[in-house]
Specification:
The protein is α/β, with parallel strands linked by helices. It has eleven helices and nine strands. The strands form two sheets. A six-stranded mixed beta sheet has the order 5-6-7-3-8-9, with helices on both faces. Strands 2-1-4 form a three-stranded antiparallel beta sheet, with helices on one face. The N terminus is likely disordered.
Length: 279
C-alpha cells in the first residue's frame, strides 16, 4: 500500500472526503494539498484566519469552484462530475442574508421547495414542520423585511433544511447576532442534528462557539490544515487553556487580509444554478 493510500481519508462512515485538494489562482496557491474527512452526523468546525483558504475550500465542496487537483466526494458524489447530485445533498446558510425581503416567510420557503423539486404535498408539510420548529409558524404570512436578524437566520436555516439535505454548510451563521440569539440558534441546530441526523459543517470567528458546539475541528492556515481534532485535543497539543489561545498558537497573531465577503458567495450561488461552478 502506498503512502498516498495510507493518508487517503476512508469512505466508511464519512459523508465528506477530501484528498490532496489543491486550488491555484495563477501562481497563487489558495488551498495547498489538504486532506480531511467529515463523519456522517458530525458537527464539524472549519476554522482559519482571514485568507487562510476556508472559503475557497467550501466553494469547491459546494460546486462553486473546480479544484486544480485532488479529490472530493460529498455523499459519494464528485462535485465536479455530479454537481446536481451534490447540490441536492447539502443546504447552505451564508453570513449575509439571502432571503427575499419583499416576500413572506412562507413564500420564501415555498420558492426554495419548488427550486429543489420537492413534491407539493410533502413540501407544504415540511414547511409547516420546520417553521414550527424554529418558532416562526405564527409569522408565516409576515414579510421578511419585518423580521429581526435572529428571525431571518432561523428562517434561513429552516429553508436550508427543507429539501432534507444530508449536510448543512454554515458560513459564520451567528456573526452579528446577540449572545442570546446565538445560543438559541445553536440549540435549534444541535436539535436538528440530533433529530434529523444532519451533518453540520460550519465556520465561525467565535472560538467559544466552536469550543462548545463542534465535535471535531480542523484549522487551516496559508492553505494548509495545520491541526485537527477535538477542542480538548487541540488545547492539549498546544498546552493552552482555551481554544482561542490554541488557535493563535497554531496560526500566529499577524492580522490577515479579509476574504471575499458572503455577498460574493451568494452571487456565486446564483451563477451556480444558472450554469454550474467556475474553474
Amino acid at each position: 500500500m502506498s503512502t498516498e493510500d495510507v493518508n487517503r481519508p476512508k469512505a466508511d462512515g464519512t459523508i465528506i472526503n477530501v484528498s490532496g485538494l489543491i486550488k491555484k489562482f495563477g501562481e497563487f496557491t489558495a488551498v495547498d494539498n489538504i486532506s480531511f474527512s467529515v463523519k456522517r452526523g458530525e458537527i464539524f468546525a472549519f476554522l482559519g484566519p482571514n485568507g487562510a483558504g476556508k472559503s475557497t475550500t467550501i466553494k469547491m465542496l459546494t460546486t462553486l469552484l473546480h479544484p486544480t487537483s485532488g479529490e472530493i466526494t460529498l455523499d459519494g458524489h464528485n462535485p465536479v462530475i455530479d454537481s446536481s447530485a451534490v447540490r441536492r445533498s447539502f443546504g447552505i446558510v451564508f453570513q449575509d442574508p439571502s432571503l427575499d425581503d419583499e416576500l413572506t416567510a412562507w413564500e420564501n420557503m415555498e420558492f426554495h421547495g419548488v427550486l429543489y423539486g420537492v413534491e407539493k404535498l410533502l413540501r407544504r408539510k415540511r414547511i409547516e414542520e420546520l417553521m414550527k420548529f424554529v418558532e416562526l409558524w405564527d409569522r408565516r404570512d409576515s414579510l421578511v423585511k419585518e423580521f429581526s436578524g435572529g428571525m431571518k437566520r432561523r428562517l434561513e436555516i429552516a429553508r436550508g433544511l427543507l429539501h432534507h439535505p444530508k449536510v448543512m454548510f454554515l458560513d459564520e451563521p451567528t456573526l452579528g447576532l446577540d449572545p442570546q440569539t446565538r445560543n438559541h440558534m445553536w440549540n435549534y441546530l444541535k436539535e436538528l442534528n440530533k433529530s434529523e441526523g444532519v451533518t453540520v459543517f460550519f465556520t465561525t470567528h467565535y472560538m467559544e462557539e466552536a469550543d462548545r458546539v463542534a465535535q471535531r475541528i480542523a484549522i487551516i492556515d496559508h492553505g494548509k490544515i495545520v491541526a485537527s481534532g477535538s477542542s480538548t485535543e487541540l488545547k492539549e497539543r498546544t498546552g493552552k487553556s482555551s481554544l482561542e489561545e490554541a488557535f493563535l498558537e497554531l496560526t500566529g497573531k499577524t492580522i490577515r487580509e479579509e476574504e471575499a465577503g458572503s455577498i460574493d458567495h451568494l452571487r456565486s450561488m446564483r451563477r451556480m444554478w444558472r450554469g454550474g461552478g467556475k474553474k
